[in-house]
């Protein structure tokens, strides 16, 4: 598999509103129905659980999609990173879709994400539908046989068929001896950084570091040399 045909990606999502009380009555009601299935204790009420709304495409939105491409034709290899980000979700989805339409439409192209089959890929497709953005061929799984879906998932690769096993990207990086990129924020803090601090650049940096780690984990799992610091610099 030619590494240069794989587009590595990661997304960052947040709840659609900074706090539960700013959502419309209909959204509050619908989130309340969803929260019934998330509650574990008496203290788990819709308001307290709303910080988790960002992981559901019906209640969240994408604020950043970062992608990485490894150019294997240069020596040494070079990583190219690009991020689509901002407050206008439709605009960033349109720009990302355009990238896929123009450069990732051939049968030999692949997308790769960690837990991508359960989260990133369907989340992006759902938000595209909601925003009336045409879903690129490589993302659209409708009517496709499993072997026709051009998606790689490092978590699925690590499972080896074990359906109950969840392993974070951070843990996989650790077991393969890859330095962790989590030197600033983690996923649970993204919504706060976005809604309370308005620091989208910080989120983009975090997302791009995850893409580099994803590439490193994929290389380790496919017995290929890890990226050097010079290669990561692009």
Can you walk me through this structure?
It is a single chain. With 234 residues, this protein is α/β, with parallel strands linked by helices. It has one domain: Ribonuclease H-like superfamily/Ribonuclease H (Nucleotidyltransferase, domain 5), CATH 3.30.420.10. It has 9 helices and 5 strands, in the order E-H-H-E-E-H-E-H-E-H-H-H-H-H. The protein has a 5-stranded mixed sheet, with helices on both faces. Helix 6 crosses helix 8 (200-221). The longest helix is centred in the C-terminal third of the chain and has 22 residues, at 200-221. The chain is globular. The model has no long low-confidence stretch (mean pLDDT 93).
Specify the CATH homologous superfamily. Answer: Ribonuclease H-like superfamily/Ribonuclease H
Average pLDDT reading: 93
What does the main sheet amount to? 5 strands, mixed
Low-confidence stretches: none
What distance lies between the first and last C-alpha atoms, to the nearest angstrom? Answer: 21 Å
Highest CATH level, the class:
Alpha Beta
Continuous helix count: 9
Write down the CATH topology: Nucleotidyltransferase, domain 5
Determine the structural class based on helices, strands and strand pairing. Answer: alpha/beta
Helix content: 25-40%
Number of strands: 5
Taking all Cα atoms into account, the compactness measure Rg is: 18 Å
Spatial strand sequence of the major β-sheet:
3-2-1-4-5
- Globally, the shape reads globular
CATH architecture: 2-Layer Sandwich
Strand content: 15-25%
Q: What's the domain count?
A: 1
SSE string, helix = H, strand = E? EHHEEHEHEHHHHH
Regarding quaternary structure, how should these chains be classified?
single chain
């Amino acid at each position: 598999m030619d590494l240069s045909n794989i587009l590595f990606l990661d997304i960052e999502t947040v709840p659609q509103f900074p706090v539960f009380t700013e959502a419309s009555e209909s959204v509050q009601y619908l989130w309340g129905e969803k929260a019934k299935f998330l509650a574990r204790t008496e203290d788990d009420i819709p308001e307290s659980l709303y910080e988790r709304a960002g992981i559901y495409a019906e209640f969240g939105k994408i604020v950043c999609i970062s992608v990485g491409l490894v150019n294997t034709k240069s020596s040494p290899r070079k990583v190219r990173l690009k991020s689509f980000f901002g407050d206008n979700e439709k605009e960033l989805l349109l720009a990302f879709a355009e990238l896929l339409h123009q450069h990732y439409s051939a049968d030999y192209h692949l997308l790769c994400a960690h837990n991508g089959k359960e989260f990133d890929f369907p989340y992006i497709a759902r938000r595209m539908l909601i925003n009336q953005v045409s879903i690129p061929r490589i993302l659209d799984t409708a009517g496709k046989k499993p072997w026709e879906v051009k998606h790689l998932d490092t978590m699925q690769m690590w499972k080896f068929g074990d359906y109950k096993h969840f392993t974070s990207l951070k843990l996989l990086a650790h077991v393969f001896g890859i330095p962790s990129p989590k030197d600033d924020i983690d996923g649970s803090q993204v919504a706060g950084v976005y809604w309370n601090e308005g620091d989208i650049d910080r989120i983009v940096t975090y997302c791009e570091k995850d893409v580099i780690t994803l590439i490193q984990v994929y290389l380790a799992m496919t017995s290929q040399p890890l990226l050097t610091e010079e290669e990561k610099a692009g």
